[in-house]
């Protein structure tokens, strides 16, 4: 099923002269996870997945789950009054109120709960297994499903600046939340997370 947030489903979309969409090239290491299956094999260390398979499943959920985006949008809707009445400048974090900062902390908690729920309920794994898998799931620096790149993407989504810009875009421009995989800068052969 195609996500309502997908803008192009071509396999190798060219974005401009120096950027490509690495998600078009990404795979889940050949693993197709059936999140409803109770027949997942357990490794010697007690985990249900190989590290890269676990991280890939979370990356896939992170980048494609419409329900997640809807919960984030509900959060934005529930907190927009703080940003419409109290100002705040995403370019200057010192200009935000304590109530706005509290909303940011609640946003981070929402992310923690969403990741924990997905990992424990859908993947029958644990947060500690996922955290460990992030460090073990190695890949090329351009592999958006490598542990370091998934951790970086999650971290970039939960910075105060990213939150403030998202609130501004939602409030002023009516733009709902969207989570895009990082772009590959072909000149530097590196992912760009902004």
Label the overall shape: globular
Largest sheet: 3 strands, antiparallel
Task: State the helical fraction.
Answer: 40-55%
Q: What is the tally of beta strands?
A: 3
Rg of Cα set: 18 Å
What is the average of the pLDDT values? 74
- What topology, given as strand order, has the largest sheet? 1-2-3
Strand residues, percent? under 5%
Structural class: mainly alpha
How many individual helices?
6
Q: Give the count of structural domains.
A: 1
Terminal residue distance:
27 Å
Unreliably modeled segments: 1-45
The string of secondary-structure elements, in order, is EHHHHHHEE
Biased composition (Basic and acidic residues): 1-19
Organism: Triparma columacea
Region (Disordered): 1-48
InterPro entries: BART_dom (IPR023379), BART_sf (IPR042541)
How does the SSE layout of this entry go?
Layout: E1 19-20, H1 51-64, H2 66-86, H3 98-122, H4 127-136, H5 147-157, H6 160-173, E2 183-185, E3 190-192
Antiparallel strand pairs: 1-2, 2-3
Question: What brief labels describe this structure?
Answer:
194 residues; mainly alpha; three-stranded antiparallel beta sheet; 49% helix; globular; disordered N terminus
What does this structure look like?
The chain is mainly alpha-helical. The protein has one domain (46-192). The chain is 49% helix and 4% strand. The protein contains six helices and three strands. The longest helix has 25 residues, at 98-122. Residues 63-170 form the BART domain. Residues 1-19 have a biased composition (Basic and acidic residues). Residues 1-48 are annotated as: Disordered. One of its GO terms (cellular component) is cilium.
């Amino acid at each position: 099923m195609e996500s309502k947030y997908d803008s192009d489903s071509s396999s190798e979309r060219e974005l401009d002269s120096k950027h490509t969409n690495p998600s078009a090239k990404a795979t889940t290491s050949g693993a197709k996870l059936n999140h409803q299956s109770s027949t997942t094999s357990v490794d010697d260390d007690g985990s249900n997945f190989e590290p890269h398979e676990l991280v890939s499943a979370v990356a896939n959920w992170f980048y494609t789950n419409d329900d997640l985006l809807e919960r984030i949008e509900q959060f934005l809707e529930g907190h927009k009054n703080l940003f419409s009445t109290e100002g705040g400048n995403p370019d200057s974090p010192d200009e935000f109120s304590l109530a706005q900062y509290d909303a940011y902390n609640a946003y981070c908690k929402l992310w923690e709960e969403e990741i924990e729920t997905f990992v424990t309920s859908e993947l029958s794994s644990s947060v500690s297994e996922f955290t460990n898998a992030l460090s073990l799931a190695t890949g090329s620096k351009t592999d958006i499903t490598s542990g370091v790149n998934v951790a970086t993407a999650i971290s970039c989504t939960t910075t105060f600046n990213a939150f403030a810009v998202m609130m501004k875009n939602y409030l002023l421009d009516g733009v709902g939340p969207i989570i895009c995989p990082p772009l590959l800068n072909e000149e530097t052969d590196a992912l760009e997370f902004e």
